[in-house]
From TrEMBL:
<dbReference type="InterPro" id="IPR036049">
    <property type="entry name" value="Ribosomal_uL29_sf"/>
</dbReference>
<protein>
    <recommendedName>
        <fullName>Large ribosomal subunit protein uL29</fullName>
    </recommendedName>
</protein>
<keyword id="KW-0687">Ribonucleoprotein</keyword>
<comment type="similarity">
    <text>Belongs to the universal ribosomal protein uL29 family.</text>
</comment>
<dbReference type="InterPro" id="IPR018254">
    <property type="entry name" value="Ribosomal_uL29_CS"/>
</dbReference>
<keyword id="KW-0689">Ribosomal protein</keyword>
<dbReference type="InterPro" id="IPR001854">
    <property type="entry name" value="Ribosomal_uL29"/>
</dbReference>
<dbReference type="GO" id="GO:0005840">
    <property type="term" value="C:ribosome"/>
</dbReference>
<dbReference type="Pfam" id="PF00831">
    <property type="entry name" value="Ribosomal_L29"/>
</dbReference>
Length: 63
């Protein structure tokens, strides 16, 4: 998810997306611990997307 797409979402959408992505990240991390993922770079991109959304939420709270 690109930063421009994140900026267009509302706060409620961001919170919903953040929860879903965090759950997905946790599930992938657990699956990777048991058997290696075919594409381990998925973990990095998911983690960075979660960080982008969390940053946008913090930015909007401070405004």
């Amino acid at each position: 998810m690109k930063q421009s797409e994140i900026k267009e979402l509302s706060i409620a959408d961001l919170n919903e997306k953040l929860g879903a992505l965090q759950k997905n990240y946790t599930d992938l991390k657990m699956a990777h611990a048991i058997t290696p993922l075919e594409n381990p770079l998925q973990l990095r991109s998911l983690r960075r997307t979660v960080a982008r959304i969390a940053t946008e939420l913090t930015k909007r709270e401070l405004q």
